[in-house]
């Protein structure tokens, strides 16, 4: 073999080895990325705002309002009634497990909000209703509790207007806990 042929053979071998190493490194990077993504999916906090197109189910009249301290630009509200207005936040949870459920609502600029707004959490082992005083802004996330949920969309938080004043629907957070 002449010098030129040997150079071509060695170069070809080195290129193949480098390519093989490059493929191995790309495969390792893909495995690490998938592992990080799986870990991230297991710890994803899901927030649903009343203005979201997905994950929100409405029944009855829910006009837009602003209470000050709203999460985002606005919120929805329903006037005092007997439960004919219902808003459900239905998250698509990435995995089964325990989630801390919190609600967010703004202030009461017209002094007409309910002191007993009924928020019901539907979870893997049943449901529980909380009567929340919405006459003062939540000041951030107001924790309802930690509940076991199944993966997917069977869990929910529901608010109805079966209250002693107007009820405010703004946002709900589902935060995984260990």
Structural class: alpha+beta
Number of domain modules: 2
Shape by Cα distribution: globular
**How much strand content do the residues show?**
35-45%
Give the ordered list of helices and strands. HEEEEEEEEEEEE
DSSP E strands, number: 12
| Tally of helical segments | 1
Fill in the CATH topology of the largest domain. Answer: Jelly Rolls
Write out the strand line-up for the largest beta sheet, numbering strands in chain order. Answer: 2-5-10-7-8
CATH class of the largest domain: Mainly Beta
Rg result:
26 Å
Largest sheet at a glance?
Answer: 5 strands, antiparallel
How would you describe this protein?
The structure is a single chain. The chain has 178 residues and is an alpha+beta fold. It folds into two domains: 1-42; 45-177, Jelly Rolls (Sandwich). The protein contains one helix and twelve strands; from the N terminus they run αββββββββββββ. The chain has one helix at 3-42; strands at residues 46-49, 56-59, 64-65, 75-78, 86-89, 97-104, 117-123, 126-132, 142-149, 156-160, 167-169, 171-177. It has a five-stranded antiparallel β-sheet, with no helix packed on it. A hairpin with a 2-residue loop joins strand 7 (117-123) and strand 8 (126-132). The model is unreliable at 6-41 (pLDDT under 50).
């Amino acid at each position: 073999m002449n010098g030129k042929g040997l150079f071509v053979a060695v170069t070809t071998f080195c290129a193949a080895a480098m390519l093989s190493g490059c493929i191995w490194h790309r495969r390792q990077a893909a495995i690490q990325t998938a592992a990080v993504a799986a870990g991230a999916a297991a710890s994803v906090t899901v927030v649903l705002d009343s203005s979201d197109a997905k994950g929100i189910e409405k029944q009855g009249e829910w006009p837009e309002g602003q209470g000050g301290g709203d999460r985002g630009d606005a919120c929805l509200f329903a006037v005092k009634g007997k439960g004919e207005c219902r808003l459900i936040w239905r998250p698509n949870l990435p995995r089964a497990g325990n989630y801390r459920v919190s609600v967010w609502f703004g202030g009461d600029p017209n002094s007409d909000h309910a002191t007993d707004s009924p928020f019901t959490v539907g979870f893997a082992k049943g449901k529980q209703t909380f009567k929340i005083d919405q006459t003062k802004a939540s000041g951030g996330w107001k924790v309802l509790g930690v509940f076991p949920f199944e993966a997917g969309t069977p869990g929910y938080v529901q608010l109805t207007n079966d209250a002693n004043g107007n009820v405010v629907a703004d946002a709900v957070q589902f935060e995984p806990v260990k």
